[in-house]
Amino acid sequence: MEFIINKECFNKAITDVSHAVSIKTHIPILSGIKIVANSDCLTLLGGNSDIVIEKNIPLTIDGVMKLEVFKKGTVVLSAKYLSEIVKKSPDVIHVKMNENQSVTIQSNEIVTNLNGLHSGEYPNLPQVEEAGYFNIPSVELLEIIKQTVFAVSKSGVRPALTGVNLSIKDNKLSCVATNSHRLALRELPLESKVNGSFIVPSKCLNELTKLINNEAGIIHIFITKSYIVFKANTISLYSRLIEGNFPNVSGLLPQDLKTIITMDTNALLKGIDRACLFASEWRNNNVHLEILDNSKLRISSNSSELGKIEETQSIKAIRGDAGLSISLDGSFLLDALKAIKEKEVKLSFGGPMKPILIEPSDNSSYLHLISPVRAY
Asked: What pTM was estimated for this model as a whole?
């Protein structure tokens, strides 16, 4: 194996795949990055027991030569040391492997020798050629992930709740995340021959948002019994699915709504953020909401040691019972409001001890559900 490569391209690819590499692992080969030199591209692979990231570097990018392959081959190199060597190299990098898996990395007059691992020991990628698949624009996929993934459970007691449930039925994609105290749901029309329900680990989705943040175009999503694969133009992410059954959330959505108010999203977000200043003393970050005079919403929180913060905001529209008083987890409210892009938000209440429904005032494809907390 021998090739010459642009330093910035090589460094970016190493950084991308390193996100999936576990430095502390009981399987030594997984602490490395697999490099495959082909005649038309260089492929890098990094992975652990749950996810694998694959990055392809073509010979030219935007008409500019970035890679020249003189001899094909494969090797696995320590992710930690390869990353540091390339990052600290001053210029174009020349990589050459001899017969005993020793790799020479040269940049200008700097020469480094790095012992490689045998690539035959590196796990094979899951086969997805026969898998069902669907396509989604990268911008829409990023938005869906960001509007749901934060609501997953941080506890491993119920593994199914640590992921986002992707459900496809009748050409509609539904994404749901919940930790039993809050729920985020987003729906999207989608042309797909795939039907089913799959639980995707939140770690996978968080990594995906970093990888495709600047990727324009279409993301191809392949689904097998155990794996989901996201393929973009030059990068792919393979992830195990979470086994188990995701709870049926359709019965959780409140039907008997007593009060519905419409607020300015940005103003409410800032008000809740201010109220959270004194909410951290409470186990559930208690923020108190109360309707005043059919026209104002009072937002408050207090700390026995520090003091109290309180403000009122104008309600743009109100329907139903105006005698409402409820306490909620302020951090959950903040997460929900940050994910809403629309200018106005609708808050629907079923009572002081029933979950609050939060959704954009003119977009029914996206909603949040937050359970109340005790005010004492």
From this structure: 0.91
